[in-house]
Amino acid sequence: MGNYSLVCRSCGERCEGDAYRCPSCGGILNTEYPFDRRDALCSALRNARQYWDYEPFFPIGRECEKVTMGEGFTPLVPTPGIARAFGIRQMSIKNEGLNPTGTFKDRCMSISISKAKALGASAVVIGSAGNAGAAAAAYAARAGIPCYVMVPASTPPERVAQIQLYGARVILVRGSVTDCIDLIARVYRERGWHNVTTASAYNPFQADSEKAIAYEMAKASGWEVPDWLFVPIGGGGILSGIYRGYLDLFRLGLVKKLPRMVGTQEEGCCAVVNAFRAGRKPTQIERVENPAGIAVAIADAYPLDGETALQAIYDSGGCSESVSSAEILEAQRLLGRTEGIFAEAASSTTLAAAKKLREKGVVQAGDSVACVVTGSGLKDLQLAARHMPRPAEVEIDPEQLNRVVDGMEAAV
Ligand SMILES: *Cc1c(COP(=O)(O)O)cnc(C)c1O
Ligand SMILES: [Zn+2]
């Protein structure tokens, strides 16, 4: 198989060969790496120049053909203007909006579609709020594998169009993203589909993709670690993955500490925040009834990887915070006009929460903060457009133009 083993979270059994769930008890599988070649692993981390250079940390055999197109290795952008606005010493943004389909889900799909292909999948299926669906569709197109995507019927039409453009077979489901995922769970085995839904309960292979976000961030900042790392929580996979990435770096001695993980959600759908506030165990996260809000990419009624995410939050001394739709839009606009970065609503929860925690005094003036902007705002232009004023409009007339510009200068 290669450099990894699949170990059952429930019964502890080690799988011979690849599987999506434990062959003995049906439990969720974790990946494990021996870490016996420490020097080789450290030099892989130090010298990496592209996403697949992290292959020793992915559950993929060397012989596996990679389905890839420049995902990952996104920039870590210093944002001193935001740091000043929030009263924080240092701030930066990992801009995942630069991935091929506009979100970090490309990292996940590059691995899981490569794996599905190696395992001879005749078709893949995914339940998604739209972003993972688009990524699955794009990578499946490159792999030449038919792709079924189930998204909530309320998904913004541009997202659906993007998925269709990559040639996937889209089915709108009258329910939430959690309902889409549950519906697929009832049919995918019978249909022989490989399920690439981004949850370790369905696909343990994609779950290691986000570790690379930590590797890349650490390398880009000279192996410094931010005091606080803000990550949005939908299913919880990305926060869990990034934290495991930092644990790897810590174990290998490349970083001296771990970041405090902050999981951010929108008020209308915040199962992890509710559990954190109530001091509940990671196994006791409760499903949200009637999820609401504008951050569609993280509107998971039940976070399938919430358990590992909340555990990471507790272990790292972090916290979980929710923000309102208005706070999200405000943060989105602030980031755009201060730093020139257009973040998705889901991603803007990180900035809104950083501001809130600074105001509460949880984050202190001397701290360093990083936010993961998980996706590009271009993926939901309608949302931004709905909240922008109508621009001035003029005839083809220089006098009129000058009057309008004079008015704009006076308004500043
Ligand atoms: C999927 C997604 C998230 C949440 O990721 P999880 O792993 O489900 O927690 C956050 N932001 C964007 C833009 C996403 O597409
Ligand atoms: Zn088992």
Description:
The chain has 412 residues and is an alpha/beta fold. The protein is 38% helix and 14% strand. The chain has helices at 38-47, 80-86, 105-118, 131-143, 157-165, 177-185, 188-191, 211-220, 237-251, 271-277, 306-315, 325-339, 345-359, 381-386, 398-411, and strands spanning 5-8, 29-32, 76-78, 90-95, 124-127, 147-152, 169-173, 194-195, 228-232, 260-266, 319-323, 368-373. The strands form 3 sheets. The chain has a 6-stranded mixed sheet, sandwiched between helices. Helix 8 crosses helix 9 and helix 12 (325-339) packs across helix 13. The longest helix has 15 residues, at 237-251. It is globular and about 75 Å long. The N and C termini lie far apart (63 Å).
Largest sheet strand order: 3-4-12-9-10-11
Give the oligomeric state. Answer: single chain
| Tally of DSSP helical segments | 15
The secondary structure category is alpha/beta
Q: Which word captures the global form?
A: globular
Q: Which cofactors or ions or other ligands sit in this model?
A: pyridoxal-5'-phosphate, zinc ion
